[in-house]
Fold these 3 entries.
Entry 1:
Amino acid sequence: MPEYIPQPFDWVRDQVALYEGSGGTQGTTLLDTGIPVIIFTCKGNKTGAVRKVPLMRVKVGDGYVLVGSNGGAENDPVWVHNLRANPDVELRDETEVTKMRVREVHDDPERAQLWEAGVAIFPTYNEYKAKTPRTKIPVFIAEPI
């Protein structure tokens, strides 16, 4: 089994540990905001290691929207490159764990619809969009295999 490499930020690493360690009964919101989060597990594109990423819970039908905002930073988050190289993930939504495949959504109107679903849950995505020098923030949809 590949090595698990935890997230570099303490609060993110701690949240993943709490969420997974409790079987999805604790640590299921973004800090004290009350906004639900999911955790997806993917394979690192360079290391092949297991990576676990908490993101806002944006459910659309049977799928989940994954927004690569990186807080409006200049670069995409590392996990975006991981998903582009290895689209098969495991997604935890509280106590439910599902094998999924992700695809990056480039085309409007689907991308616009998914972006708006994300903003409805986490309006700060629009602030990140205005702040970043990137042309577009990557948007993915994770769908059951």
Entry 2:
Amino acid sequence: MAKKFLRALALLIVPFTASLLIRIIYMTSKKNFHGPSSISDEPAIFACWHGELLMLPFLYLRYRKTPHVKALISSHFDGMLISKTINYFGIDTISGSTNRNATRVLMQGIKALKEGYDIGITPDGPKGPRHDVADGIVAMAQKAKVKIVLVEIKPTKFWQFNSWDKFRIPKPFGTLNYYSTQPIDVASMDMQEAKNFIKKGLLKHEL
């Protein structure tokens, strides 16, 4: 009973507080955007590593002034916290992952893309291995006939968790380096080729 109460309290307090802290970090940081100034209005999949996802909403909102996106988020409790946090940035969610409830999540993602939504995904989430691209992002892009925008977020100052994804929280008053690509097409690639291509693109600026 106590655990249930504490979780309910956390879901009430943590997401709002986290959304404020994320905004403060962004506002107090210098921003460098390396990538196209605009992209096609066609629905796309925005992909970044799980450990870099914290500041992703701002890159998305740079390209989409009015958010129309659903992010694939784990159905675990930490995923619920993330989901409620990004809701404050106008980002909707699909609960689950391409490892857990894979078929249902894949179908929901394809349906959303065909309805005109963008999709946000961490190809190595929700449990890793770190920097290992799962099949889901490729299957979704190919079946929905959409392209993928690869995003890297490299802060100059950050706290790093000792977790599987080496999750990074940028420190205020540093520099946020955003790297993004033009939408890439994996339609003609086989599964392994596409996964290798995505991995290479997302590691291009890794230290």
Entry 3:
Amino acid sequence: MNSIDQITRNILQQLENNGRISNVELAERVGLSPSACLRRVQELERCGVIKGYRAVLDRSKLDGGFTVFVAVGLSKQRKTDQEAFEKVMLRSPEVIECHNVSGAIEYILKVEVSDLAAYKKFHTETLGTCPELKSITSYIAMSSPKEI
């Protein structure tokens, strides 16, 4: 994809708001014919601008809803330590997001569990068994007024 014009930006905004919108409705909202709109969406998918579509879940209705953001510091910043830590996070269903960041820590995690006891178990049995860890700081979400 060479450049992203205003119509394409509008398409992306509409899809971010509702990934299940029909092509006909999307085309109408952005001012294109359905065939032209579909071609643009397919090109955005082909070139990787649109990475996929997903369902946004209300975890409080799925024995979840207890959200903790976890700042993780590693004892060493070696590639092997990062890879080992990331491998554990990829296998952990409680970890909804894992971001490698710059600054005083190496990772920020978004963890979703049912309650404080479940988080303590994750903290102890998953994070607590990673030999690469130097520090763990937990931030319990009180509410999420804006969330994807």
